[in-house]
Amino acid sequence: MPSNEPPATLALTNTLMTKLKPAKVFKGSVEPGPLPSSSSFNASRGPTQGPRHITGVSFDDRGEFVLSAADDETFRLYSCKSGKHSKTLYSKKYGIDLPRFTHKNSTILHASTKEDDTIRYHSLHDNKYLQYFKGHKDRVISLEVSPVDDGFISGSVDRTVRLWDLRSPHCRGLLTLPQTPIVAYDSSGLVIAVAVNHYSRILLYDLANFDKAPFLVITLDDPTLKLISFPPRPIYMTSLSFSSNGKYLLVGCSGDAHYVLDSFEGHLLAKLEGFIGLERRVMGPPVDLQPSKGCSGEEVSWTPDSKYVVGGSLDGKVCVWDVQNLPARPEDMDPTRSPLRLNPIAALDGHPGPSRCVKFNPRFAMLCSAGAELAFWLPDQSGETDEIAKELLKKSGGG
Amino acid sequence: MPVPSLKGKEVDYSDIALPSQDQSNLATLPSPPPWPTSRSEFPTRERTHKILFDASVDKDRDGRFRQLIEKIQQLDPNSEHRIKGKGKGKELLYRYEGEVVEGTRRLQSLRPGRGEFHIIKYEHDQHSVGPPPPTAVLAVNISPLTSNQQIRRHFAVHGRILSFEPEIDKTTGSALGIVYIKFSTHDEAKICVEKEHGGKSNGQGSTLSIQTIPGEELKVVLDDDAKSKLRAILRELDDRRRKGKEAALIKKKEAEAGEPFFPQHAIHYLLILGLLLQLSQNQASPACSVTDKESAFHHKWPIKPLLTESALPSSVLPIPFPLIFKIEITIEVPLTDLPQTWQSQREVVDAELERNGNEYVTIEESGGGQLGSHVKEEDVRRFFDGFKVDKVLRDHLGWCVTFQTSDSARKAKTVLNAGTRTLAHTSVMLSVHTPPSSWTPSMRAAAPSARETSRRWRDGDIAEEAERLILKELRTLLERDVMDRVIGVKLRQMVTDEKERKARGVKVDFLEGDAASEEKEKRGLKGLSFKKNRVVKPQPPPTVEEHSVTEVSPSREADEDQVDELEAVQRPKKRQRVVTEDVTEPELEVSPAVEEVEEDDSALSLQDNIAKRKEPPLADSEDVRPIKKSKATDKKKAESKPTAVEEQSPTPDVVIPGDIDFEVPVITEVRLSPERDSSAFATPEPTSSWSDPIRDGLFEDDEDMYFAKLALSRTSDGEFIVPLPRVSAEEESDPDAPPPFRVHSTGSARTEGYYKITHAEKTAYVTQYTAQAKAANKDVIPEPAVVAPTPTVTSSRSNRANARRRAQGIEEINQMQRAMQLSLGETPATDQVKFNQLQTRKKHLRFARSPIHDWGLYAMERIARGEMVIEYVGEVIRAAVADKREKAYERQGIGSSYLFRIDEDLVVDATKKGNLGRLINHSCDPNCTAKIITISGVKKIVIYAKQEIELGDEITYDYHFPIEQDKIPCLCGSAKCRGYLN
């Protein structure tokens, strides 16, 4: 950068968040798939049903690039700074899911959807695989890179969590669980959280001693669910993420609510509502009796300042929840008491189709949402024209 | 160096399971399934483990893992599951289910949270959402005096200007100092904003070549193509103006409300006033009513002493006159002012004009004189037939005609000044005036008075105020009553009677009555010139109003005091004369008032003069006197019919009440206009007392006299015919009005000589038309219902039919000639007589100066939509020739282009040879279109009406010039104006 002075920054505020507007929409970011011939596809894996979507996005550490992985077995690199598409790469052989930047902006990790369930370490720069991380026996549904080092963890349908290091093809650790785990690192990289769906448990492990018992076991229970149906639909957790300040744990679910927990005590602090869950791929058909992952998993995330949660919705909206004023942790948490139900401060219209991936840039005031299309959102900083006009006239009237 | 040890420990899952048991206590909640304790639930092939050391990844710098591995290998023979790897230095050290507790180094997060985010902006490309980045800028605070060229030049530095739109005030036409400039790229606009914003032109360090509003800095912001900011600014300005107006209105209301701010008992005054007014309306005879009112006053007035003290009408004088009564109310109130009636009349007219809001027309005689009062509203309306007349108003200054549409005034002027119509057989000149704005000087005058009146009311003040009000009202009402009901009707009736009689051939001669003696010399020196002139001119039928008009005019307001004084002084004399009327008869011929009347009405009477002069001049006044007297009695009788008052007595004696105190210096005469003398002069026919000035030696011949009168009429009336001071005051009153267009140092544009009107000035003029057009568009909507184009259509159709017939006739002639030539053995020539059928279909048009450009063509008849207007005639030349000629014309300095392209290779050049069609101006919102039609194989350019064209509309069509670099600014002033011709 030629300019010496630091570029202008801004803090996120409610008004700013409500003024987010799609600045760029990349319409052709997913190649349209072959016409769905229902007979041939019904036997195949679930997520490939329906229209092709972007299944995951990832920002690099400096927020300069965003990587999208789609059902069409491509992964595309976009520059967040210029708002331009910079590269399209193909992984036709293995498929691609859960794209994750490592700490270098030229290398990524991704899970496979085809061939086997190996996690692959890819260099974008020369389009080569640097490492295969073999070990999982079933589809990997959760993959996180340690915020502090080259370690990463993965959760798989084979009911194991594996710890890895980029430098070693060998699994650095293994955690067996009774059900499909969802994993997350905390911001210090010392703690991992593992959500186990069927049991509605979230286990917090000390990373150094994850092979021992978890130091905290959280049972996620939402008393308000029984208001909707009886028996209440169980919560199906699809993503887990710690806020950057480490205080909160966001539990993304495939249903119509996400949850914010206290990461120290495990209390349920807020229930984020006001969107349509991604349990279904398209609007219309009713949900199954048994909750499922659907196309959920990447749709909800924290803003890097831990003030807001941004999430997608099946109807394509991008919701912003203000989580700055969550209640203090009560001493005696009554599990029967309803959690604070938060509605989004803004439900912004973006692109058609579900917004499956919603992430806020770690460094720039920019949000990325993806589904059938990829959109870059920027806060609209041009003021109201009326006010500008008044401003222009005010001073001129003064003289 | 501590060597880590391995201690086996089973993971206790019981504490994980514990919370779920708690959950089961909650009856209403379906508890999630209990944490499985059995190992069968967990994957069985592998155990939870951790690699403590991987030689390929971990750096075992201090060698403690090396030591540990060796130690384990020593201690545990079955250590294969713990230590894997091939060979030394490539081992992996495993730990199962938390065998060892070990501290971990805390690492710095590579993905820290962040509270502040960098702002990014994206360039516009095909993926961008929303409009492209703005390429236009909006500059405000430019001094309105800066010319557009200058501004343009200033901003052109930053890039290519695609469009340049200076904003003008829609109401006043002045530049707003706001310019919308569109550059070709966003970068140019951005640079422009960076460079220009905040620039100061005034004072030191000025970086601008243009002027800003003093004390302000130039503000330049980006604006989008939709001009959203510009619109917002204009909206804001509009709001402000409206608010300003509202505030003014409120102020005005307050000012008005200041008057009724009476305490309780003051209302009585007003009640009585109301009663009086009612009385005055019921009573036909004003004189009688006044006395009645007085008594009513004394009866009902609750504070009688106050009344008498403060002297309301202290003396009300019903004075019966021999011809027509004259009422004089003498009021000892110093603030009575004579022209108040006219003031109020004018206010009414002003209010009406303001309400109408469109330009209005005032009428004056062609000679510059004022229209006589014989003109009635119906006449005026008839005169303006064909225009959408809204209201016909009259005040003491003359007639004002307002129109329903804003442009009608100008059209009417164009059409009617052409002299095709006469108003009551008089040719008149119309002049167009802008409507008064709401903040008229009279209102301004009212504002301070409102402040005055809002002071605390003391009893004395109240009484005074009430008195003042009552008197004012009373005066106006009485006056109007007398005029409307008594004198006006009578006079008109009489006039018509006389006319009829005259028509029947009855010679009616009557003397100028002794009433003439009443006429006073009121004009100081003005009347003196004809002192010796014993002319008592035959009068056209002037009504009383006319006198009221002539008597107080704005021009004389200045020396009003003088008049008052004069009157006060002359009064006794006059009285006396009234008393001694019978005795001192000859005196009346010397009365200078005669001339005054003559002056006033000369303009009107001129027409009749010639005819009248042919009548034998009447003999001495002595001879005529009896006739006249009888006539006067006649008249009086006729007048007294409807009024039925005390005037039965045929004697012309005047009873003057003795209580009139003529010595009071502050006495003001409120003379209600129906005066005896005026009525005396109101005789419509040449009077017998008309002595020939030629015979008297004053003039050599008729012609001399005619011009003398003409000159006199101008001097006496010309100066106040057009209410000029009013107009100028209005202009001043508007605070944000533009500076007056041009101050003519010589006093008039005509004497100014040649001067160039700059483009900037012209644009200022254009706004007037813009405003008009806007108003016109607004008004146009109900129009179709009113105007049925059928008559014109049929006329045009018959016109065409006639043309066809004529063409046929010509064709026959041609055929005949051909036949003759053939018979003579000559080769038949081509048609010798050509007929241009387009010529016959031409409309009645007229050319005149145009606001758009030099000359324009105006419709002198109503043209229906789709009708042919005129053919564009000129030399048909080839395009190459046209190019050459164009250059030649440019060299010769013929600035206007009269070249009209027919097709690829033919151009019609009307520069040297052509018809009126070449004068048609361009408009971006034209009322005509030019069509190229082929008539018997020849292409002709014909202008067709695109819409209904009203009388006096300028004919315009769109030139459709190709876009060029050198822009020709457009002054068409239409709302849709593109700003340039090309």
Structural class by secondary-structure content of chain B: alpha+beta
CATH-assigned fold name of the domain at 136-242 in chain B:
Alpha-Beta Plaits
Going across the biggest sheet of chain A, name each strand in turn. Answer: 19-20-21-22-26
| Beta-strand residue fraction of chain A | 35-45%
Q: Tally the helices of chain A: what do you get?
A: 3
Major β-sheet of chain A, in short?
Answer: 5 strands, mixed
**Main interface: chain pair and counts:** A-B, 96 and 83 residues
Using only CA atoms, what is the Rg of chain B? 47 Å
Average pLDDT of chain A, to the nearest integer?
A: 84
CATH homologous superfamily title of the domain at 20-25 and 135-361 and 373-398 in chain A: YVTN repeat-like/Quinoprotein amine dehydrogenase
> What is the assembly state of the chains in this entry?
heterodimer
Which fold name fills CATH's third level, the topology of the domain at 20-25 and 135-361 and 373-398 in chain A?
A: Methylamine Dehydrogenase, Chain H
**Overall shape of chain A:** globular
Helix content of chain A: under 10%
Q: Give me the secondary-structure category of chain A.
A: mainly beta
- Average pLDDT of chain B, rounded to a whole number, is 65
CATH architecture of the domain at 136-242 in chain B: 2-Layer Sandwich
